[in-house]
Design a protein that fits this description.
The protein is an alpha+beta fold. The protein is built from two helices and five strands. The chain has a five-stranded mixed β-sheet. The longest helix has 7 residues. The chain is globular. The chain starts with a strand and ends in a 6-residue tail after the last strand. FE2/S2 (inorganic) cluster binds next to loops.
Length: 107
């Protein structure tokens, strides 16, 4: 279980307790969080689960693989240093308190 804070472009927040096994994307979809489309269902193909990890983050996240890296070059909102695909971020106690910022648009 991890508390994940989803920050919307207008500054509002959705804070969820997301159980394992899930991803940051799946937690959002299960709770109808606006701003995560996840059109491919989590297979790192669509880029519509794009998030920006909070710049102050110190929690351990899995490294980005080549597939995620490629997909992040095609997202609707600009890629940043902090960009990740939320479907590639598994939930665990280790990321309790993670803050992700949702982009302006996903498609
Ligand atoms: S859900 Fe499609 S890339 Fe993450």
């Amino acid at each position: 279980m991890a508390k994940i804070r989803y920050t919307h472009p207008d500054g509002s927040e959705t804070v969820l307790d997301v159980p394992e096994p899930n991803t940051v994307m799946r937690g959002a979809k299960l709770n109808n969080v606006n701003g995560i489309e996840a059109q491919c269902g989590g297979s790192a193909q669509c880029g519509t689960c794009h998030v920006y990890i909070d710049e102050a983050n110190t929690l351990p996240l899995p490294p980005m693989d080549d597939v995620e890296d490629d997909v992040l070059y095609g997202t609707a909102s600009p890629r940043r240093e902090t960009s990740r695909l939320s479907c590639q971020l598994p939930v665990s106690d280790a990321i309790d308190g993670l803050v992700v910022h949702l982009p302006e648009r996903q498609s």
